[in-house]
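Expect sequence, tokenised fold; for instance:
***
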Amino acid sequence: MRRPVARNLTVLAVSAAVVVSVGAAAPPTPRSGPAAQKTPVAVGYGGAVSSVDRDASAAGIEVLRKGGNAVDAAVATAAALGVTEPYSAGVGGGGYFVYYDAKSRTVRTIDGRETAPLTADEKLFTEDGKPLAFADAVTSGLAVGTPGTPATWQTALDRWGSRKLSSVLKPAERLARQGFTVDETFRSQTASNEQRFRHFPDTAELFLPGGELPVVGSTFTNPDLARTYRELAREGVGTIYHGDIGEDIVDTVNKPPVDPDSGWNARPGDLSAKDLAAYEARLQAPTKTSYRGLDVYSIAPSSSGGTTVGEALNILERTDLSAADKAGYLHRYIEASRIAFADRGRWVGDPAFEDVPTKELLSQRYADSRACLIKDDAVLTSPLAPGDPRHPGSCAGSGTAAPTMYEGENTTHLTVADKWGNVVAYTLTIEQTGGSGITVPGRGFLLNNELTDFSFAPANPAVHDPNLPGPGKRPRSSIAPTIVLDRHHKPVVALGSPGGATIITTVLQTLTGFLDRGLPLVDAIAAPRASQRNAAQTELEPGLYDSGLRAELEALGHSFKPNPEIGAATAVQRLANGTWLAAAEKVRRGGGSAMVVEPVRGR
């Protein structure tokens, strides 16, 4: 193994712009003292970046200040997140990239999802004729897909960027070398993975320095990742798909470097150099649906995010959510989510392998045929049967219902705009917190466990499951980076979130809160969330679970269970006269970091 040395958008914009904003610092510095403060909203000129992490947002701002565009800044921010959010994203994972080009006023996308090995089949996660236990699959080479993130970066830069990869990786390489200050979120995420990290000596050595959890306030460095970024800068992503780093990835997946004294059965994968060489980030058309006179664009399958958010918006189109009381609004939102998830489970998979009726799922005619299921005084029963988008029947289901399968909930999202009006919404991931738990020796990054997003067995044995594994197939995702344009094809808002299948409901609720309920963007992000995914119970954050609204909704027949935290959204909003508003979480995931190039002060 080689090792290197709104409804009323004018009102919304005005109300949002009165917030006093804080701009970016210069180059990323370790998070300590006053520099560690995160700001969830910023307003200004020259472009904007919003992510979960201050150092990552600052990396994007640094690129924008030096004349880079939104694509350049998005890649720089993503690379920095690979340093400070290594349990959520990195070169060992994948993601989906949505780009608005201001010159042509069009939206384009990249599917950078990981792929199964070319030797994989429907029995990938089957042992002795039975589906493998989920806990046995997640921490294994078996769960690792071919990484798509490096190819996504290069594809985006080649098509729409203005800087070379070597240039935009500089802030992240510096951050990995100099280090960042450990916060409580990083420590707690490490603690939740401590047991499985100790199965792998390279992971333990990196993330458990001195054999202990990292201390809040200490400086965390990753010299191996800094060298990896330098190698990528020097040799390009070919070193992953055709070169030395790729050889190390293959060796690690097929012979996981597990501590023999741990007793852990780290099942090997079957990744090959051929898998890496065959990988391509897909350039594809976005999903598109109209909502309240606006055009909503997102990512098409292999992710289910765009189709499911789009179908739910179409279901809600004929309901005046602005006039509903809070309970009525939440009831309609929950029921639209339930219906859209029922259809998602039946119809969405990798379109290279499955006949996915994307156009039909996004038709208003089909949405109307499903919306009539919703009653103001009753609740639908889950799991709800899917409809047939190719043959819509009024209030009709089709076949047997199937539950929504589990997806890892830790991912990260970033949103960027530049002074020319270009916008990027980019969600990237290594699947669950800590991915597979396996660090590539000497390389400083964790490998994904994204293949666990496949169905281990058919969700409904009586019906074809479009999400079973296959050779080179992409597992279904729920990622939903979204850009909304007005009637002049100019951006209104762009947003996205981590959270597994809760990504879809987070994006949907944030959009309706902003566009229908008139909430300022940062408040639409902060609002307590509900997530219904065609399950018997809807998950509620404490702000709803502990409120009187819960009793009102239970009186209609809703059933709830608590979820302490759902998603961690970021967004940007176009304001007047070339200004941008960046918004992030106030509290979730330790709060997010919104920055602009030139802040408007004293507003």
